[in-house]
Design brief:
The protein has 487 residues and is of the alpha/beta class. The chain has 14 helices and 23 strands. The chain has three domains: 202 residues, FAD/NAD(P)-binding domain (3-Layer(bba) Sandwich); 116 residues, FAD/NAD(P)-binding domain (3-Layer(bba) Sandwich), CATH 3.50.50.60; 114 residues, FAD/NAD-linked reductase, C-terminal dimerisation domain (Enolase-like, domain 1, 2-Layer Sandwich), CATH 3.30.390.30. The protein starts with a strand and ends in a 13-residue tail after the last strand.
């Protein structure tokens, strides 16, 4: 078969867009297949609309609590959420017309093919009857909200991150099922816009992949703002009664029920692997999605997968990294292996950022050699000046002060995590950051303080070398250690 393309990419969301731009910049002949809108989940149902919502909600929260900054607070705030939803659509339209504009990719040399793709072999993809022959195939079809098997849920109808932004305005009240990042972000945002919000979580805590100590602090913030966070709830069924949707379940051995105008379901994601012809092509698919190796290759050498559909880390930034590394592996010598360290952030207020191991994870590997350093934002001059001093920096160090994990709860935590993540990625020491002078007053000054503490501890161990010139003497060195074999 004559191969007309160097690369055919299936899906033009976060991963597909970055991969197609990178491949086109190499002078490769690239075709990208998209059955919907360019931009994928991030632009239309995920990152962009949710962050636009959170931005509006934060302003509303500041108006209500302006007395914290010596300004008159608006005790009653009547919010027309249709205007908020309009602003969300305006942000999406602006991005879709510029950075995510299909014409921009066409100008780079990417051929965009609209339709449903089906992989028909290791070097061919069919789109609505047309066969595209190619050297390599990269599958970036993403994921969608999972549909839990709850009795009566489908009949009652419910919202997810996919369809909530298709509304003209927010409902008056919401019962949210699930305690992951999407649900928790939306719960706080909707509550700040004036909605009654109840969150039902089956386990004994929310955000289970994050550092529990910081999650506990964030939980207190959410409850303090009026989010009704209910833990240990097993959902049994859903009914519609008197115009409201009612969730029935059990909590602590007792029957419970929670009613609201709408339900919001966020219980995970399902990879989009259906109808792609993967079985016929011989591509292995597991529970989390298409199975890939550290180079993002499937078991078929010419077929790669990246982003949510590959099931590693379900983040926009991870998708872009994975697909670029996949293209690098296809067309350059050597291996395009992907990083196992993927930092992330839950964009509540305060934000909760994560890189590397939690304290518990580190202790499983290194036991009592783990040391945790903490610094509350209440000790940050900038945080106190800004009136946002609820939060904590937490770093997890292992043997020889190696930084194993870093976690931040605070304003702009997602922006601040990166220098710590860099040290974690290179297996460096926390004390290395003490060599960098951090601008004062900034929130990042706290990172410099933690690093300085580590350096000070090292200096204390060598204080016997210090010259006490005023007294004309030096501190005697510590007694020599007895050789291990003589003990």
């Amino acid at each position: 078969m004559r191969r007309g393309y160097d690369l055919v990419i299936v899906g033009m969301g976060s991963g597909g867009m970055v991969a197609s731009e990178f491949a086109a910049s190499l002078g490769l002949k690239v075709a990208t297949i998209e059955r919907g809108r360019v931009g994928g989940d991030c632009l239309w149902t995920g990152c962009v609309p949710s962050k636009a919502l959170l931005a509006s909600a934060k302003v509303a929260h500041h108006l209500r609590t302006a007395d914290r900054w010596g300004l008159p607070a608006l005790d009653t705030l009547d919010i027309d959420t249709s205007l908020v939803w309009k602003r969300i659509r305006d942000a999406q339209t602006q991005i879709a017309g510029t950075d995510d504009n299909p014409d921009r990719y066409r100008a780079l040399g990417v051929e965009i093919v609209h339709g449903d793709a089906r992989v028909t072999g290791p070097h061919s993809v069919e789109v609505d009857g047309r066969t595209l022959a190619t050297r390599y195939i990269l599958i970036c079809t993403g994921s969608r909200p999972a549909r839990p098997p709850i009795e009566g849920l489908e009949e009652a109808g419910y919202l997810t991150s996919e369809n909530i932004f298709e509304l003209e305005r927010a409902p008056k009240s919401v019962v949210a099922i699930g305690g992951g990042p999407i649900t928790i972000e939306m719960a706080q945002g909707l509550r700040r816009l004036g909605l009654g919000v109840t969150v039902l979580q089956r386990g004994d805590g929310i955000l289970t992949k994050d550092e529990p100590e910081l999650v506990t602090l964030l939980t207190e913030v959410l409850r303090g703002e009026g989010v009704d966070l209910q833990l240990g709830v097993a959902v049994d069924r859903v009914t519609v009664e008197d115009g409201q949707k009612v969730v029935h379940g059990h909590q602590g051995g007792q029957e419970v029920r929670f009613a609201a105008e709408e339900l919001l379901v966020g219980v995970g994601r399902t990879p989009n692997v259906e109808d792609l012809g993967l079985d016929a092509a011989g591509v292995t698919v597991g529970r989390r999605g298409i199975e890939v190796d550290e180079r993002m290759r499937t078991n078929v050498d010419s077929i790669y997968a990246g982003g949510d559909v590959a099931g590693r880390f379900l983040f926009t930034h991870s998708a872009g990294h994975e697909t670029v590394r996949a293209v690098r592996d296809m067309f350059f010598p050597g291996k395009g292996t992907v990083s196992e360290l993927v930092p992330w952030c839950t964009f509540t207020d305060p934000e909760l950022a994560h890189a590397g191991l939690t304290e518990a994870e580190a202790r499983k590997v290194h036991g009592d050699k783990v040391r945790v350093r903490r610094l509350d934002l209440s000790h940050s001059d900038r945080a106190r000046s800004d009136g946002d001093d609820v939060g904590r920096f937490m770093v997890v160090c292992g043997p020889r002060d190696r930084l194993l994990g870093a976690h931040i709860l605070g304003p702009h935590a997602g922006d601040m995590i990166h220098e710590l993540a860099y040290i974690v990625s290179r297996k460096g020491r926390l004390s290395e950051l003490s060599k960098l002078i951090h601008v004062y007053p900034t929130l990042s000054t706290s990172i410099g303080q933690l690093a300085a503490e580590s350096s000070f501890d090292t200096a204390k161990r060598f204080r016997w070398l210090t010259k006490l010139s005023r007294l004309g003497e030096t501190v005697p060195p510590p007694p020599p250690l007895t050789p291990r074999r003589q003990r």
